[in-house]
Amino acid sequence: MSQLVVQKYGGSSLADADRIRHVARRIARERAAGADLCVVVSAMGDTTDHLLDLAARITDEPDPREMDLLLATGEHMSGTLVAMALQAIGVPAISLTGAQAGIRTDSTHGRARIANVDPIRVRDEIAAGKVVIVAGFQGATDESHRTGEVTTLGRGGSDTTAVALAARLQADRCEIYTDVEGIFTTDPRVVPEARLIPVIGYEEMLELAHQGAQVMQTRAVELGWVNGVVIAVRSTFSDHPGTLIQEADPMEIRDKVRGLALDRKVAKVTLVGVPDRPGIARAVFDPLAEAGVNIDLIVQNVGHAGATDLSFTVPDVDLAKARRLLDPIVRELGFADMTTDSAVAKVSVIGAGIGNTPGYAARMFGALADAGVNIEMISTSEIRITCIIAEDQVEDAARALHAAFRLEEPETTDSGARLAS
User: Fold this and answer.
1) pLDDT, tens digit (0-9, with 9 covering 90-100), for 248-271
2) CB 182 within 8 Å of CB 216
3) Quick one: pLDDT at residue 216?
4) Residue 338 near residue 272, CB atoms below 8 Å
5) Which of 65, 83, 280, 287 has the most CB atoms in a 10 Å sphere around its CB?
6) Whether residue 286 sits in one domain with residue 168
7) How far apart are CA 136 and CA 119, in angstroms?
8) What is the dihedral of CA 120, 123, 126, 128, to 10 degrees?
């Protein structure tokens, strides 16, 4: 019986005609080995950024529905070109939009979430002997009274499309192909000594993605975890086995710190002289939540003389919106001031169990101090320690922490080996 394989190819893998032909040959080789294939594609290269730039030249406030229709065309183009490339080498193939593939979403344009996947057409086309190419990053609302509206799933949404299809099709394998060989201990462009991680748990990968690692989308990892989909992250341009994202090793005796995430796309907001009374936090954060502004780290100082300071981080693209929403609240509730800083970055060490194992926080703070890096905010969880630092020091911080936790070395089975040495 043939294996069913879901593959996803990112924009860098499809950046030009030569790369599209390379991907087609790779798909053909997999099919010749006996696999049935559903292939999810992203937009070619920088197509999405180009479309966003074009829209910005037309209007400062594009209609969200029209933006989704515009951006969805990038994946349509990739899908049809990959299908043509396969047909040109004698492989039966058909391209489908997200809606045609049965991807149904809520109605939130730009950041829609998948409500259901009904891949009847995908199954039928595979049964007819075709490789099915699905446009990632998109779906359509499920509205019985009219034709569904096209929606997009947000940056990296093609990963989510692939994992959702793999789960619903009960695929034997789900493979995410990109321009790197897998998941590394940190960004190898910043730390050349970064090491490939052969296997990583869903929870650790979720934190790496959430804290700034660019290889996988957070929602795709969540979906894989919930549905038990093992995800292989591999390079389009080599045969390296890459990284498997799967259920974590349950053993306690192993290295705790698995990776280091960097995120430059954050900004800090500080509300000064906030009245220290019930209801203030709700008055601040409710409007931000309703406007879709994601809040990450939150630090509140101990109150003095009936007032306190409140600091939190937001994505840098949402800083202007946050200021606009908070300005009237600052005046109405009598805050002393509001300051913002977009020249900050987030650095996180991540690994299951570090929150309840002594020594990891001290080593992180010591390494940053020795590198001359000042810590502005700290947040911890069972699996993560995160610091907000100056953006221009993020690469120094990454190199210092990677060395301090000896992440360039092969993993050991002794959880204390690195920490004690």
Assistant:
1) 765 544 567 889 999 999 999 999
2) no
3) 85
4) yes
5) 83
6) no
7) 14
8) -70
Burial class (CB within 10 angstroms; exposed 0-12, middle 13-18, buried 19+) of 52: middle
The answer to whether the CB of 350 falls within 8 A of the CB of 170 is no
Sign of CA dihedral 86, 92, 97, 99: negative
Task: Label the pairing between strands 114-117 and 150-152.
Answer: unpaired
Q: What is d(CA 163, CA 325) in angstroms, rounded to the nearest whole number?
A: 36
The domain of 58 spans 4-179
Q: Looking up tokens 């296997």, which residue turns up?
A: 199
Q: Is it the case that residue 239 has pLDDT exceeding 80?
A: yes
Whether 224 is in a domain gets the answer no
User: How far from the centroid of its chain's Cα atoms is residue 35's Cα?
Assistant: 28
| Last residue of one domain, picked from the residues 179, 202, 236 | 179
Q: Which tens digit of pLDDT belongs to each residue from 300-325? A: 876 666 788 999 999 998 999 999 99
Q: Which has the closest alpha carbon to 170: 116, 123, 221?
A: 123
Q: What are the E-state strand segments in 211-355?
A: 231-235, 243-246, 259-275, 298-300, 307-315, 337-350
Which pLDDT value is given to residue 420?
A: 37
Number of domains in the chain: 2
Instruction: Residue count of the chain, please give it.
Output: 421
197 phi/psi in degrees, rounded to 5: -95, 115
pLDDT tens for each residue of 130-173: 999 999 999 999 865 456 899 999 888 999 999 999 999 999 99
Is residue 146 classed as helix, strand or coil in its secondary structure? coil
Sign of CA dihedral 95, 113, 224, 356: positive
Tell me which DSSP letter residue 356 carries: G
User: What CATH number does the domain containing 271 carry?
Assistant: 3.30.2130.10
pTM given for the model: 0.85
Residue 303 DSSP one-character state: P
Q: What's phi and psi for 290, nearest 5 deg?
A: -65, -30
Bridging pattern class, strands 4-9 and 231-235 = unpaired
